[in-house]
Amino acid sequence: VPVCALTAVSIYLISVRKKYSHIPGPPRDSFFLGHIPTFQKYLKQGKFFSEMAIEFIRKYGHVVKIEMAERIIVITADPQSIRELMITGNHSKSKAAYEKLGFLFGERFIGKGLAAETDQKVWVWRRALMNPCFQKSYIKGLESAFNTEIDLLINKLAGLADGKTQISMLEEFNHLTLDVIGKIGFGMQMNNVENRTEPSEYTKAIKLALGGVSAFLRDPFMKFKYSQWKYIADVKKAMKTLRVLSKQSFDERKKQIERGDYTPDDILNFLVKMKLENPELDGEVILDDITTFFLAGQETSANLLSFAMICLWQNKDVLERLKAEVSDVVGDKHYISIEDINKMEYLDMVIKETLRLYPPASNTFRENKTDIEIQGYKIPAGTSIMMSTFVSSRLEEFFPDPLKFDPERFNPAENRILSYTYFPFMLGPRSCIGKDFGVIEAKMILSKIVQRFNFEMDPNQSFDIEESATLKPKGGAFCSFTLCDS
Ligand code: HEM
């Protein structure tokens, strides 16, 4: 029996890999596991998947294949194929990549929510229903709520601004962005920044579930390890809790709307009304969406802000110029409007350059509906094709001196960015729906911080990147603050 099984697996692997034999890629370390041991070697050196991908692209060209046991991933940094896959062809998301995230450890997590839906027809319909929720006019209406939430962190930092107390800004930004999406998106008062009470059940569950995603991505075989079973059980319980609490919030809001009570014009209101107007929408999918917004809209913004602090501290000239711009536009007024934010051109360049070097959500996986050609290589239909803004943005041929933090690259007067080489929110119809929300939020937070404080970072912490569900600073971005003279 074992011999027959091994023969069958071998024949299967050979037949799958044969279809890709013409595509360049590194030699595999193991016949059965393919490049899994190669990836493990990189992990041991403290490197992560996207760093391995860059090395392969540099060595083998803009199209490479990686074999993860029976699964083949083609990685492309070829700009024209990126355009075809994300914009002109808008190919569906890869089932192999997103269905695992939808149902983590077999428990429904983001399920068939907007980010994980792989049926293109269903996604097109649902995205069309959701797009109005994130229109610019909606974001404009959030201005005052953004100010209120952000000022809670600013006041907290002011209380700690003794030039000595070390504060993990990664943690603080995570608390703030969770409060923002909870309050502004779903009417939930989470109070993580003020931290006066025990974290809410929702906060605890979302943190545990997010940790579970990261752990799974680092070690997809963890469910086979006995030592991990207790942790996995806790993560599954947290995912169940999230669902129960999301359903309670949904039902409560539905009742309020049906009674004609006042309800805030937030994402939850939008979702409830969407369901009432489209009864054929699956209620479970709406719960998937609630989890998706917490997942997609929180850590991404927190990581971007933490990296921005690091880049500014490492580049004092950029920090000074940014402080001068903020001072010119808003002076010392505490309420910052979206109009003010839109006037800050240099702030925009700083955010864009931070996202180039440190894109929190760096990869997307698409599946080509039909055979396509990339740089003369035939890619069979149904392949999982990865595109990475982290990889493309660190290639010398697209961004000269790529590791240099230089916001001038994004000077609008110069137009130096080659098309389809930079995509921190992805491109085309399936790009990030919350981009304006996330960017306005990040710009408002950063401008308030540089307006009010001087800061120093602990030079002994790690400034490396950690790749888990998102890219984040490994050392936690520890800072100490003093208040600016003015
Ligand atoms: C700086 C902050 C953010 C960054 C860098 C970011 C980045 C991204 C990226 C790269 C994707 C595509 C992922 C993929 O193809 O697998 C995406 C999708 C998505 N993002 Fe964001 N995001 C941010 C903020 C937000 C916020 C604030 C929200 C919600 C309030 C949000 C909601 C979503 C959703 C729902 C999707 C899935 C869209 C779809 O598939 O139609 N994001 N985001």
UniProtKB/TrEMBL annotation:
UniProt entry tagged with the keyword Mitochondrion: no
Record EC number: 1.14.14.25
A Pfam family recorded for this sequence: p450
Cofactor(s) needed: heme
Keyword Oxidoreductase (UniProt): yes
Xref: InterPro entries: CYP46A1, Cyt_P450, Cyt_P450_E_grp-I, Cyt_P450_sf
Residues holding heme: 432
Protein's UniProt name: CYP46A1
Naturally occurring in which organism (per UniProt): Mytilus edulis (Blue mussel)
Taxonomic lineage: Eukaryota, Metazoa, Spiralia, Lophotrochozoa, Mollusca
